Each structure stands twice: as C-alpha cells, then as structure tokens.
Amino acid sequence: MRVLRELDVLDELLEHGYAFNDLALRAPGPDATVLVVMDDMRVGGDDLPATIGIYRPELNEIVRRKAEEAGVTFRYGTKVVEVEQDPESVQVTAEDGTTYTYDVVIGADGLNSTVREAIGITERPEPTGMGIWRTFVPRPEEVVRTDLYYGGPAFIAGYCPTGDSMMYAYLVEAAQERDLTEGPEIMAELAAGYGGPWVEIREHIKNDARVNYTHFTQHLIEGDWHRGRVVLIGDAAHSCPPTIAQGAAMAIEDAAVLAREIIAADTFDEESFRSFRDQRVPRARVVVENSVQLGQWMLDGKRDGDVPGLMHEVDSTVRVPV
C-alpha cells in the first residue's frame, strides 16, 4: 500500500476495493461460532488500512491506466519465445517472429516464467502439498472483513470482501488431481462443512459460480536474479503459498526497489541488479519460508506450531519500508 500510494493510485483502490482493519477466527461446523476478533497489524503504517480487498482485474486496470499516463506502451497477445542479448541491448522475439530491442528486460512473467527459462536460470516452483479452491461471488452483508475457519472438511476456509457487492472465497485442502468440470459441485460439497456466511456463499457456488483450483508452490532463486541486462522480479524470482497473503505485496515491492535502483544508476549498470537482489532476498525469504511452514504444520497435523511467533516475524519484517 505504501508503494501504491507513492504511485498515486491508493485513492482509486480504496474507492473500488474494500478496506478493513481486523481479522476473525470462526469455528468450523454449522454454528460458525466467532472465536475471536482481533486487530490486524497495519504493516503499511498506522495511516493505512491493514487490508484492502480488491478484485485483481480492477487493480490491474487502475495501475495500467496510471502506467499509460506515464508513457508506457502495452502490447497484448504478444507471447515471448526467445530472449537474446549483447553488451549493448536485449532482443526479444515474439511468437509471430517480430523482434523488439530494449536496453533492459524485466521478466515479471510469473510462476512459469518464459524469461527465466530463456536466460538459463534453472530453479522452478515446487509443489508444497496443498491445493486451493477459489471463487468470486456476491458479498453477504455480514462479511465485513476476512474470517478464517481452521479445520473441518478443508484445512482453511476463508473469504475477503473485495468491494461493496462482491467477495473472494477460498478453501484449502491437500493437493490432489481434481476434475475441474465438477469444480462447483466439489467446492460446494466442501463448503457444506462451514456455517455463517458460507451458507450463502455455498448457494452461489451451486448456482454455477466460476471456480478455480490450483496447487500451492514455492521457490526462491538463490543465485543472481539476472543475467546481463535481463532481470527477474515477482513470482518469476520467488513464490509462496498464499497462507500469509504476501505474494502480490512482494511483487509490488520488487518493482519499486528495482525502479529505484535503475533510476539511481541513470545508465545500465549490472551492479544495480545485484543491489536490487541483495535488498529483496532477506525479505522474500522470510515470507516464502514462513508461508510454507504454516502450510506444512497443517499438513503434518501439528497443533503446537508457533503461529503467533511466525506471523510476528512476517509482520515486523514487512512493516519496515522498502
């Protein structure tokens, strides 16, 4: 949120999203008893909300418009198939054979990064053993924050309001091969183990809501995140399960720190990429390792893991400005 405020898009995010400052734990089962409502740490600072839930395409649109105002050119439907470079530039070849030449290339192309493979970095995201069902449905009036249910048919059941009328809901289970043609039926069956707002959420799922199922992965590139004039950021460089909800935040921070380094250097300097990586690795490592650990405790059935200590380490780490 600090970075997005610097980019002058925070007000739009607040207008289109849903801000809140607390978090609740509920018991699984039909009663969905609220066990505790706690203040969530405002890691962006006391003058920012703890959380802003927002539909990802709306976030993308807001940031895209701001980028266009700054002079960015977008090319859609352009798949990169090859990246080559010489001491002075980088040549990117698209699927249609067109070649583009740049001073530097930033591979922000996600978990299955084409750029990462093209520059010979061999680390790949590895499965953690968990899978997640996701859906986007109308928001019941009582959903005014994230509530988490631990246990029941899934490891975690949760939801997050993303605006006045809509919300995101999810169920985390042991990873398995699922028939996605039966996705709504499977997710609705799992959701039947939870009460409270899940009763209404389940009805929306049963009425052919669009659902998604993916496996959690994790990785962190241990060596340089660049080769020559090409550098990786975000999920291309590091990924984690969403158990602590810091993946997108880490990617946004990566972009901010890299931009700062490039601007300070004025002309291309490979040391800028090394400085960027050195700043980001300790922070990304805490998020990746703790996100994985939280999920592993659930997979192992460990009931005495130091969850408060783990969360405190993450919160205290990301509270420090980048």
**Main beta sheet strand tally, sense and closure:** 8 strands, mixed
Note poorly predicted spans: none
Helix content: 25-40%
Give, in order, the helices and strands. HHEEEEHEEEEHEEEEHHEEEEHHH
| Strand portion | 25-35%
Query: If you average the pLDDT, what whole number results?
Result: 95
Q: Give the total of beta strands.
A: 16
Shape, please? globular
Radius of gyration, rounded?
A: 21 Å
Task: Output the strand order for the largest sheet.
Answer: 3-2-10-11-12-9-13-16
What gap, in angstroms, lies between the N and C termini?
12 Å
- Structural class of the helix and strand makeup? alpha+beta
Describe the structure.
- This protein is of the alpha+beta class and 322 residues long.
- Helices cover 35% and strands 27% of the residues.
- The chain has helices at residues 2-6, 10-16, 56-69, 114-118, 183-191, 198-206, 247-265, 270-300, 307-319; strands at residues 18-20, 22-26, 34-39, 51-53, 80-86, 89-94, 99-102, 105-107, 126-138, 146-150, 156-161, 166-174, 211-220, 226-227, 230-232, 238-239.
- β10 and β11 (156-161) form a beta hairpin.
- The radius of gyration is 21 Å and the shape is globular.
